[in-house]
Amino acid sequence: MIHEYRIVVRHSPRVGMSVLENLTGHMPKPAPGACATMWLLHATRPTTMPGTPPITTRAHSTYTHGTSDSIAASRPQPEVRHLSATSLVDLLDVRRGSLYRTQDIWNTLVDPLSCAGRELRGACKAASPNGPLFLEMVTLLTMPESERTIDRLTDAGVFLIPARAGYLRPEDAALLRSNEGLLLWLQYAAPPTAYLKMFDGSDIFGATSMHDRARIAKILRILLACGRDRTAATPSNPSDLAPVNPLSHLCSQVAPHWLRRVLELGGCPHQMSQRGVPLIVSAMRAEAIRLHNAGQDFMRAHTSLRQLAELLKRHGADLTQASGRGVPAVALLAFHGLCGAAEALLISGASPNAADRQGNTLMHHLAQVLHMRESPTHTENAKLAHYALILSLRHGGNLDVPNAAGHTARSLLPEPTALGPQVDDALLTTARTTALRRIRPLS
Predict the structure, then answer these.
(1) Using one digit for the tens of pLDDT, what is the confidence trace for 310-347?
(2) Residues 6+ apart with CB under 8 A from 229
(3) Which part of the chain is CATH 1.25.40.20?
(4) Which fold has domain 269-442?
(5) CB hemisphere CA count around 354 (13 angstroms)
(6) Which of 369, 415, 360 is nearest to 388 (CA)?
(7) Could you say which DSSP state residue 272 is in?
(8) Cα radius of gyration rounded to whole Å, the chain
(9) What does the alpha-carbon distance between residue 25 and residue 367 come to, in Å, rounded to a whole number?
(10) pTM of the entire structure?
(11) Which of 74, 237, 366, 374 has its CA at a distance of 20 to 30 angstroms from the CA of residue 394?
C-alpha cells in the first residue's frame, strides 16, 4: 500500500528550510515568501539496499527491553568521538545497543579510521577481497535482528550451500541472525580456510574451558548451517594452499571429542579429503596413531577404535568405503601399518566380501598386492596384505567369490601362501616390523 504525504513549507530563515533540508538532504533556496512543495511516497515495506544508511536516527537494540522507547531515547547518548575507539564486538554488544543510535553505529562502521570499521573491513577483505561483502555486513549489522530474514542472509552470501537455508533448525537460524553469529560466521565460515584455526592449542584432546567449549559449539553450528563443512574450499589469497582436510577430518585429527557433534549436526560421514581419503580412514588412522603415541600396541583392535568405528557406522558411514583410488578402508589402514585399526573395522561389521563396481572385494585387493610380492616396490605392502588377509578370513572373508572378469581372489594368490587360520610367529614379527616402519612417518 502506498501513502502520499504533501508537505508544504513556507520559507523561514530559521525553521522552514531546515525542516525541508532534513527531509530531502538538498533543496534550492526559494525566494523569500515562496512556498516549497514536496511529495513523499511511503511504502509499507521499504527495500534496504546493501550500503544504504539507515533512515532512523533513534537508538535500537537487538535485545528486547522491558522499558518503553521513550525511556530508552531519554538515556544519555555517549559522545560519538568515543565510538571511533570502540571495538567491533563492543560496538555491537546487545547489552549496550540502547546506548548507541543506529546512525552512529552506521557511521562508525563505514569510517575507515574507526577501530570497529577497520576490524570489519579487514575481516570482509580476508573473506572476499574484491566483493561487496563489507557493505552487505554493514547493512545486516545495523538492522534489528527481527529484520535479518533468511532471505536477507541468503542475498548477503551467508549460505555457501544455498539449499541449507531451506531446512535450518530454529535455534541455528536465530544464531545466524544474531550479532554474535554473524561475527563468528565472518571470522570462521566466510574465509574458505578460516575453519582450520577454530581449534586452538588449549582445545586439542579436550583440555578446554567451559567458555571455549560453548564458543566452539556455536562455531560448529554455524559452519554446518551455512555449508562450510562440505564446500570444496579455495583460498581467498592465491598464495595460500587449499585445505587438505574438510571440517569432519579436522575434528577427527585434532579435536576428536567434537567429531560426534559434527555428525549430530549433519556432517557427512563418508566425506573424502582432497587427497581422496574417506573420513572412516582419517578418523581411524588418527585414533590409532594417538594410541601408538600413548604406548599402546598398534597391532591390537583397542576398545576406542571399535567405539569410533561404531560411532561412524551409526551416523551412516560405510566401513568398507574405498579411497579415491579404489582401495578399501581396511586395506588402506593395513598398508599404513595400522593393523589394529583395520581389524577394528572388521569387528565392527566391515564386510570383506563387499564388491566394488568391478566386482572386486577386499579379498581381491589384498590377494592382488600379495601376488606382486616379488616386486621391490610392493614387498612391504605384500607383507601387510598377507597379515590383513588372514584377519579377513577370520571375519568371514571368501577367497572364491569371482569378480566381474570371473577371477577369484584365490586365483591371484602366489604359491605358496599360508592362510592360517592363525598368524604364525614369523609372519607376526615381519608384519609388526613392517608396520612400525610405516607408522613412524605418520607419528
Answers:
(1) 999 999 999 999 999 999 999 999 999 999 999 999 99
(2) 223, 246, 247, 248, 262, 267, 268, 271
(3) 269-442
(4) 1.25.40
(5) 17
(6) 369
(7) B
(8) 31
(9) 82
(10) 0.78
(11) 374
